[in-house]
Amino acid sequence: MSEKKKIGFYWCGACGGCQVSILDIDEMILDVVEQVDIVFWPCAMDPKYEDVEAMEENEIDVMFINGSMRMEENIEMVELLREKAKKVVAYGSCSVNGGLFGLGNLSTKDRLLEKGYTTKTTDEGPFPQRSSSVKEGELTLPELTEHIVPLEEIIDVDHHLPGCPPLPNQLEEAFPALLDDETEVGKYDLVSDKSVCDVCPMEREEKKIEKLNPIQNVYLDPEECILDQGVLCMGPATAGMCDAACPEVGHPCVGCNGPVKNVKDQGSRMSSALASVIGAEGEEKKTEEEVMEVMKSIRDPTGSFYMFSLPSSIMQFRRGDLDE
Ligand code: SF4
Ligand code: SF4
Ligand code: SF4
Questions:
Q1: Where would you tag: which of 34, 74, 172, 260 has the fewest CB atoms within 10 A of its CB?
Q2: Which residues contact 193 (CB under 8 A, 6 or more apart)?
Q3: What's the predicted TM-score (pTM) here?
Q4: How far apart are CA 4 and CA 56, in angstroms?
Q5: How far is the first Cα of the chain from the last one, in angstroms, to the nearest whole number?
Q6: Distance, CA of 178 to CA of 182 (rounded, Å)
Q7: Which CATH class is domain 5-100+146-179?
Q8: Using CA atoms, how far apart are residues 234 and 123, in angstroms rounded to an integer?
Q9: Which tens digits make up the pLDDT trace of 17-39?
Q10: Domain ranges within the chain, ordered by starting residue
């Protein structure tokens, strides 16, 4: 019998959903556990930094890293884990594309702290200090990074497995392939080249849209394409590994898988998809001003088009003066 593979899971700036998703594969977890030894999983074990440091180079066969690179500590850990792992998998959209927390790139780290601790809290608590003296000694907090970047901008990544979080059907494909030395898996092979529209049960007719409406203002016909009904759905620009899980139950896709394979910028892809349907039936072309007018009906274009992928987009973060 071949030796068990050693695997690890690590979370950086994360919500916990990616960790829970690992348990979401029901009885398949038993097959996985039979094939592997989980040698590092802070969520379930209590390993110390020194334990990782003491590992041999390449000791971990497959290391799954989720969450965003929000703190200097995240960077230190992923660099260390890279040394200890043969393969690194960027697990979940935060790790692959910067994810939801990547929208923080529209602000500066100082502003985020200021907003979080001085304007939005209900309790008046202390503003976090980098260093505090307690009777046991000096406690320090890790520094926030200037901006969130995808994991692959920090370390070499062998495989991308996006999703917020990746769904059981993705893991059922990914785990056996990644754990089998005979199966070749390319870096982007776990990202679909089909969009959510391509796998959606609703047929998109690319009907002309005069403006986009908030979902709460529209009685959606469950049989008809959501975008055709004038409600923003990110299906045309989003990778479809989820089998269109959201539109299938009547909710627009919000883009959580990030862009389709080989597409760099999810937001640009969505803008092009929208530009081709904006206008009145029978009208050949809108003027640029008219297109802008329709675009204004999207309440938060950057937040909507790049909800999960701002750090991996061409824009990456807000540049220049932030004064409103
Ligand atoms: S990808 Fe989604 S589920 Fe995973 S850590 Fe990020 S926000 Fe949470
Ligand atoms: S409902 Fe959304 S995902 Fe489905 S076809 Fe329409 S735009 Fe595409
Ligand atoms: S339909 Fe869109 S938002 Fe829903 S799981 Fe799929 S990619 Fe994510």
A1: 34
A2: 239, 260, 261, 262
A3: 0.93
A4: 17
A5: 64
A6: 9
A7: alpha beta
A8: 37
A9: 999 999 888 888 888 888 899 99
A10: 5-100+146-179, 193-317
